[in-house]
Amino acid sequence: MAEAVPLVRMEEISKAFPGVLANDRITFEVADGEIHALVGENGAGKTTLMRILYGLERADAGRIYWSGRPVAIQSTEDAIHLGIGMVHQRFQLVPSLTAAESVTLGQEPRRGVFFDRARARAVVQELGARFGLAVNPGARIAELSVGEQQRVEILKLLYRQARLLVLDEPTTVLTPQEVAQLYEVLRRLVAEGRTVIFITHKLAEVLAASDRVTVLRRGCVVGTLPTREATGEGLARMIVGETMPAILARGGEPPGPPMLRLERVSAADDRGLPALVEITLEVRRGEILGIAGVEGNGQKELVEVATGVRRPTSGRFLLNGQDLTRADVAARRRAGLAVIPEDRYTEGLSLPMTIEDNLIATRYRALATRGVLRMVAVRAESAALMRRFDVRAPHPRVSARTLSGGNLQRVVVARELGGEPAALIAAHPTRGLDIAAARFVHQQLLEMRTRGGAVLLISADLDEIMALADRIGVLFAGRIVGELSAAAATREQLGLLMAGRSATA
Amino acid sequence: MQAFTDLAFATLRLTTPIILAALAGLLSQQVGLINIALEGMMLAAAFAAVLGAFYAQHALVGVVAAVVTGMLVALVFAVFVLRFRANLIVAGLAANILALGGTGYLLQVLYQTRGAFAPPGLRGLGTVHIPGLSQIPILGPILDGHSPLVYVTWVLVILTSIFLNRTVTGLRVRAVGEQAEAAATVGIPVRRLQYGMLLAAGGLCGLAGAQMSLGNLQLFVYNMTNGRGFMALAAVFFGQAQPWPTTLGSVVFGFFDALQIRLQTTVGVPPQITQILPFLSIVVVLTWVSWRRYRGRPVAA
Amino acid sequence: MTRTVVRPQWVGELGRSFVTFSAALVIGALVMVATGRDAWGAYRTLFAVAFLGAQNLADTLLAATPLIFTGLATAVAFRAGVFNIGVEGALYLGAFAAAWIGFTLTGLPAGLLIPLAFLAAGLAGALFMLIPGALRAYLRVDEIVTTIMLNYVAISFTSYLVNYPYAVPGLANAMSPKIALAAQLPRLLPPSQLNLALIVVLLLVPLVHWLLSRTTLGYELRALGSNPIFARWSGVPVPAVILQVMLLSGFIGGLAGAGQVLGVNYRFVDNFSPGYGFDGITIALLGRNTALGSLIAAVLLGALRSGGATLELFVDIPKDLILILEATIIFFVTAEFVLTFPRRRHAGVH
Prior knowledge:
The complex is a heterotrimer of chains A (505), B (301) and C (350).
Chain A: E1 8-17, E2 20-30, E3 35-39, H1 46-53, E4 61-66, E5 69-71, H2 76-82, E6 84-87, H3 99-104, E7 110-111, E8 114-115, H4 117-131, H5 146-159, E9 164-168, H6 176-191, E10 195-200, H7 203-209, E11 212-217, E12 220-226, H8 232-240, E13 258-268, E14 274-284, E15 287-292, H9 299-307, E16 314-319, E17 322-323, H10 329-334, E18 337-340, H11 344-348, H12 355-359, E19 368-369, E20 372-373, H13 375-388, H14 405-418, E21 423-427, H15 435-450, E22 454-458, H16 462-468, E23 471-476, E24 479-485, H17 491-498
Parallel strand pairs in A: 3-10, 3-11, 6-9, 9-10, 15-22, 15-23, 18-21, 21-22
Antiparallel strand pairs in A: 1-2, 1-4, 4-5, 7-8, 11-12, 13-14, 13-16, 16-17, 19-20, 23-24
Helix pairs in contact in A: 8-17, 14-15
Chain B: H1 2-30, H2 38-56, H3 59-83, H4 88-111, E1 116-117, H5 139-143, H6 148-166, H7 168-178, H8 180-185, H9 190-216, E2 220-221, H10 228-238, H11 243-265, H12 271-294
Antiparallel strand pairs in B: 1-2
Helix pairs in contact in B: 1-6, 1-7, 1-9, 1-10, 1-11, 2-3, 2-4, 2-9, 2-10, 3-4, 3-9, 6-7, 7-9, 10-11, 10-12, 11-12
Chain C: H1 9-34, H2 39-51, H3 54-79, H4 87-104, H5 110-139, H6 143-163, H7 196-214, H8 216-226, H9 228-234, H10 238-265, H11 276-286, H12 291-314, H13 320-334
């Protein structure tokens, strides 16, 4: 590729959300006619960057050039007008409309006031044939497979004359066969003069389907390189970071007997597709088991199944030898399980409720006698938790909404660890936190370990895993593909496993 | 035989306001808005119809007044729901109370009456006799001799069906109702369509009100709609907001309405029992729909 | 050390309700002026009739009594994020159940009969909510539509009962037989019809407040209402709570019916409610889904209602004015008067 004018150049783009710098002076270029993969963990800023390009978000700073010309993209309409199209992770389709109606919706062919069905069908057929995106124009969206629905989404963009197609995690919803077909389509698109950006966190796809790849991490560009110069391990390391972990005092007793055990657990995701396949895990007392892996490989389902908000399709869940597979969330918590959920704002806290109410959420039954809360105990306990975990708030009975992100996570940690649980599931416990708050959380996890608790730490941050875990399991495509002792594990090995290749191969 | 003809004739007559209101509810539902305010729009319109017809000495003016009034109530409802983001259900109930209070208030301020209002010389819509229609055996006596709005209603059912299924705007309306976000991403003016459909609903409820106070009877009675708006809403749910199934639902409910009067006098089945059926059937239908949607997916604890 | 002044949330909420109420009065005044009536005089009369003098105050509280019940019934459901519109139906069934106890178990002493009648009414209301409650909790059937529809079923069903099996021959209006004297609630301030039901509901207010703030069920329903996902992750048994909340709401709604039968009508009268159950929605919203707020809102609405009748007699202003005021209150209380840019959001139910 000669140094031609790039189709798109995003320059020094910054975008902050409350508490997070999602994009930090990102400069990103896409050449005309290439397939460009944009990779990085959740929260690395990929989607934000693309939403800015598509006019769904406004950047706080930075410039965008289209074919070398500076442009102001204020709205989706502006982006579409330039020739930018985006397929969202969640499809924007109306289930009861036909494929032809869906493709043309908004710019319908008409005959007077009437919808010109014949022309819409012809358009879909013609575009489909040209780009290898065959769908039955008369079929309703609800009857189509997910892969076909995705084709409809792509056809929508092509119908609107998009030159640049942005696909947000296009493969997560597809079967392997459909993924292969998608690659075929991408190549046809490029052959027909289109340019493609696809967002992913699956390394195999980057290697298989892209011409160039840009890696983002924590809102910054780590690097851009031609795909043929990239390797899976190299990319994995770029994605999860190369910084040396801060050495945290680990020490303590050697791990004791097993505490938390998942036995051949399988589970389906929200669409009913298999997300976990026969997972077996064991965490012992006084041990932190880290689950590394590129996100979207079953982490969410693993946490949900262990917590009890998702039913496994098969397998057993044991806590301290007790079979809790059929137990609900409350029963598991009574048995000594604590959970720091991935999304503290929705799963972990109720922002309209008071701090006190949030602090007792998992223990309100224990603080009650025959259904009546013992308020003295509630007050005392929440005050003690706030002191012990240093939750900084004007008063225990103000709405949680008034707290900062770091303080909110302290509330969650205080609630979950204050009761000295036997086992803890921590899902991305430091995501979005500043360094001080993250360090606090790390200390708490280590204290729990020292106390003899069992911790299952699921994190996308390899630094975090390597700094805290005693053993590291790698989750790939819903399976545990390897388990290493933290002392012996190297980034190279982990990178290989995360890329879906066996460590011994 | 005569009994059957009478029953069918009465069904057609009593069904008309329900179908019109149900079409209104259907258009609202199609842009994703459950319309609880049908009742109020109808009631206000029925009152305006009598007023208009009485002062202008012409039934058509009454119909126009009814349509305009229905749309005004719809506009208030729409502004609160769409502009001020009021809760749909609560705002709908408020619109109904407003219509009830407003008509009651005006009835007394203007005519010093609390119950029925039938000004002397009020002209109703009258009946239409279509040449040749009454000659058809069986169907003739049932179909002939209704108020013109009865025939207009069936034309409107057909037009609504064509509008939703064949026109570009109808396509967009369906998209908005099902997936407003998806519609917005392709540049469809969601809010404008919602306003449009609510106003159209107001107009249809206006016709329904006019049929009640100028077609079926020639008078206005305090709270004369008496739950028909909710019956229409039930028909919309019954028909899943599709024109023909919804119309079928309306006819079934209208039939129950006509039947109860007859059963009461002949067989002695209490009218209250037949009144229950439409509402109970909705609960059954909704349960079935939901059961089908979530079958095999356990509700997580 | 910095001192943070913490203003409790309810201050702002109360302020909003006050603005809403004032806005309604202004619109009511406009309506009156437009129709040539003396608005100032009307409001003065309304206030005097509602609050000045023991009998007037008693009549206001009499009008407020069923509204406090239905307000509480609605508030507990709304607080849990359950949109129960079925209080009206529960009220009808409760009223009939109370009447049935009252005219059937005539031999019992008042001390037994009255509690029994209230209990039966509550259970009837709760039983009624079992259907939409279970459907919502376990089959995810939208409770708004089912409760609206089931209201009609309850009203028609009780109408059937007093028109057929329990009809009293020779009466112009359909109604049940009169309840035993022992079942009739004592008057508090004769000649006003104000009766013991007020005391019952005044005891219920702190009870509901206590339930919401001090019990596990109260905690669960607040958690569910404020963030259902959080509730689930914390181990709140969501379907069970939804069902319990619906039953509780129905129970209180049933009590409302008992209060009217035992305290005012002494019979079940066909179609007796002018929409007390629906008023409960206004009251719960105006009272911000709290027990105390519902009490205040119900008394305000009761004042309007009881004053309305007098308004008609003495200042020639139709009592339907009160409905106009009420509608305005509801419109304003549910609206968000903030200048927002039109956001692309589906105008949904919740």
